[in-house]
Design brief:
Blueprint: H1 2-20, H2 28-36, H3 42-54, H4 57-64, H5 83-96, H6 110-129, H7 133-161, H8 169-180
Helix pairs in contact: 1-2, 1-6, 2-3, 3-8, 6-7, 7-8
Length: 196
């Protein structure tokens, strides 16, 4: 039905966005090109074509690797949080939905978090198709909570950190991510004198 098709289409977009934030190696370009052919969002398709033609592992590591100005990890954007607690919370989310990303990246990496949102959309679509409205509702609510409590921290800050790379596919991916994730004010107020 139409809601399920919409969820599957949305899941494909989130998966493609996830791939754009993964380190390009092996058959990465072929995966990006293949998935780009199945999404309807023209901005995302164009960005995927750009990425498939220009991405390289050295460029990726220079922009989002260790020591770069832009971190792909949520812990970098949580000034007042305990990294261990955050990673455990993320792993609890993933375990609750049997999400096992096929990547070497840590659980708080933007590629893993965006893949999880797409995964939850597939779960919701499957539950709807099976007539299980309770499971569909759980997956939908989990996606909204995850976007608000986790991915929003990365989406709010990463585009600004990638501005020096304007025109690159990674900067474009960060902008598209920001447009897809609702802004949520910080969970904790900034310390006195550090208001944003």
């Amino acid at each position: 039905d139409e809601p399920c098709r919409g969820l599957i289409a949305g899941a494909a977009q989130w998966r493609l966005l996830s791939l754009l934030f993964e380190r390009p190696r092996g058959d990465w370009s072929a995966q990006v090109a293949e998935l780009a052919g199945s999404v309807e969002d023209e901005d995302l398709r164009a960005l995927a074509r750009q990425a498939a033609s220009e991405a390289s592992e050295p460029h990726f590591l220079a922009v989002l690797g260790p020591g770069s100005d832009a971190s792909p990890r949520e812990v970098a954007y949580r000034r007042l949080g305990d990294p261990g607690h955050l990673l455990a919370e993320l792993q609890s989310f993933y375990d609750a939905f049997a999400f096992h990303p096929q990547t070497e990246e840590p659980p708080d990496h933007v590629a893993v978090e965006t893949a999880f949102v797409g995964f939850l959309m597939v779960k919701e679509a499957y539950a709807r198709a099976a007539g299980n409205s309770e499971a569909a509702s759980i997956a939908s609510e989990a996606a909204a909570l995850f976007l608000r409590e986790h991915l929003s921290a990365i989406a709010a800050s990463l585009p600004a950190r990638l501005e020096p790379c304007a025109g690159s596919y990674l900067e474009g991916a960060a902008r598209l991510l920001r447009m897809r994730v609702p802004f949520t004010p910080p969970m904790h107020p900034a310390p006195a004198g550090e208001e944003e």
